[in-house]
Amino acid sequence: MSTLVVLEQRGAKWSRISFEALAAATQIGDPIEAVVIGRDVTGLVEEAAGHPVQKIFVLSDERLAEYTPDAYTISLEQLIKARSPKSVVFPHTYQVRDYAPKLAARFGQVLLSDVVNVKKEDGLVFVRQLFQGKLNAEVKAAGEPAFVSIQSGAFRATEPGGNKVPAEDFPVTIDPAQIRSKPEAPFREGARSVDLSAAELIVAVGRGIKEKENLRIVEELAEVLGAELAASRPICDNGWLPMERQVGSSGQTVTPKVYFAVGISGAIQHLVGMKGSKTVVAINKDENAPIFETADYGVVGDLFEVVPALVQEIRKEKV
Amino acid sequence: MKIIVCVKQVPVRDSALRLDSEGKWLDESDLSWEMNEPDAYALEEALQLKEKLGGDVVVLCAGPPRVQTTIREALAKGADRGIHIETEDKERPDALATARRLADVVRADAPDLVLTGLQSDDLGYGQTGVILAELLGFSHATIVMDIEPQGSAVRVKRELEDGWFQHVVLQLPAVLTIQSGIRRLRYATLMGIKKAKTKEVKTVSAATAPGGSETNRVSLPSRTKGSQILSGDARQVAHDLVEKLRFEARVL
């Protein structure tokens, strides 16, 4: 009866969301074991001292040096079979999304993905968000182990500082013929010329703007405020604003004094990029838009009326 | 190249959601339905590959009879034929249950490539493609932005986190989940709509496949943060908001 937490590291650094997954695991209540994949992780294991983990298994086979879904699945399958945990908890990262559903399927399970809460009722109940955050569902795993991935920011990460966590090498057997993909080196496209992370005021625009021609409305608001213009992903995908103005998990992370979210519904991919803002103002016509949960001030109304009125009001005050 | 595109029909984006009387699921009686947007990008990618390389694009969709409209839409845009896995109206399959059903049909059709969206806009598991690959014994890659065929392999560009990308070479057959927004979606032409009427749609009935989850209940999320909601006349709202930002939050 244990919980296995899959901790993620990159370039010999823990990703913080790993400890959020650990926090979720503590709510399950069973003793926690963890696993980390990589070589030379001695330093990382030391850093993990004090976290609520009984033991960290280290998977350091050379075939795991580069991420492939096949090698990760095969290795973790062997560890799970050896340890028989009742639950397996992952951080909900792009990498986990790439292999964990495959791993879960090998055990006849589905990954309960992007979980925001854990409840203990008649068994373990996991809360997932559906319809981009507009609906919560309470879900149980149909069998064991339960495979669960944790949404970024949903749990407060566990803190280090305390006793050393013992580490144990777990040898795995991987036949090279089982690896069917060949990854090349990761790369970035061009340098960013816009740094939104230092902006004090940001006006961000989303799908609600409807047409490229309507952008003028939010540009005016940004001008009168002296704010940087930003956008959610669909706007940049359409080429209406450059990619470098995108806020969210695939764009920039911002922490302004005020973030105006105009016509942005608030999908989690966007929220992770802006929830550190001091004050959030949301303008949206859909009163159930998840952005209103993050907003300090919400305006339920038509942005095509509200934004021009706001521009006028700010101009008036400036005189 | 033979490509199967798996598409799902979901409630129209920004539908007003109402719970059913037991709080077990949504009241679906007055919902309208459309093709899951990420799957529309998978279809677009398949059609562009076909235009470059030739071959066949088959659209595959599981669901009650209403999903026929989504299959026809895909045919009107240029898919060659459709397969409808007919399910009961009352079923709520999760990603595993759906992938199990899709797998039987895909196996029989033996494609080189299976494309689907990276997630559904309703359940949002983001897993159907990956599970499908596992069940079929195909290789896979997720969040794909570009596809470059290389004989019996395919080189794809994947999106990673924080603005990073990576190329991966995969052996065929493979399942790829396609990132949204990477191409401009085409509209169906009048000619396309006409032609779609004569294209073949095969309906297969599938026995219920087990999933990996049970949904106990659903609820509309409550606001956790003490947000102040302003509504009413735009000018009044703008005035109140500026006042609050200035004197309450003191950020302007």
Characterise this structure.
- The complex is a heterodimer of chains A (319) and B (252).
- Chain A is built from nine helices and 18 strands.
- By secondary structure, chain A is α/β, with parallel strands linked by helices.
- In chain A, the strands form three sheets. Chain A has a nine-stranded mixed beta sheet, with helices on both faces.
- In chain A, β16, α7 (268-274) and β17 form a beta-alpha-beta unit.
- The longest helix of chain A is centred in the C-terminal third of the chain and has 16 residues, at 303-318.
- The N and C termini of chain A lie far apart (68 Å).
- Chain B has helices at residues 37-53, 68-77, 95-109, 128-136, 190-196, 234-248; strands at residues 2-7, 9-11, 33-35, 56-63, 81-86, 113-117, 139-150, 153-159, 164-171, 174-178, 201-205, 213-219, 228-230.
- In chain B, the strands form two sheets. A nine-stranded mixed beta sheet of chain B has the order 9-8-7-10-6-1-4-5-11, sandwiched between helices.
- Chain B is α/β, with parallel strands linked by helices and 252 residues long.
- The longest helix of chain B has 17 residues, at 37-53.
- The model of chain B has no long low-confidence stretch (mean pLDDT 94).
- At the A-B interface, α4, β7, β8, β9 and β12 of A face α3, α4, β7, β9 and β12 of B.
- β12 (181-183) of chain A pairs antiparallel with β9 of chain B, so a sheet runs across the interface.
Features:
heterodimer; A: 319 residues; alpha/beta; nine-stranded mixed beta sheet; five-stranded parallel beta sheet; 9 helices; 18 strands; 28% strand; B: 252 residues; two-stranded antiparallel sheet; 13 strands
> What is the C-alpha radius of gyration of chain A, as a whole number of Å?
22 Å
- Our measurement of the CA-to-CA distance between the termini of chain A, rounded to an integer number of angstroms, reads 68 Å
Spell the H/E element sequence of chain B.
EEEHEHEHEHEEEEHEEEH
Mean pLDDT score of chain B? 94
- SS-based class of chain A: alpha/beta
Number of strands of chain A: 18
- Low-confidence region ranges of chain A: none
Portion in strands of chain A: 25-35%
Q: What's the helical proportion of residues of chain B?
A: 25-40%
Name the chain pair whose interface involves the most residues.
A-B, 86 and 76 residues
Shape category of chain A: elongated
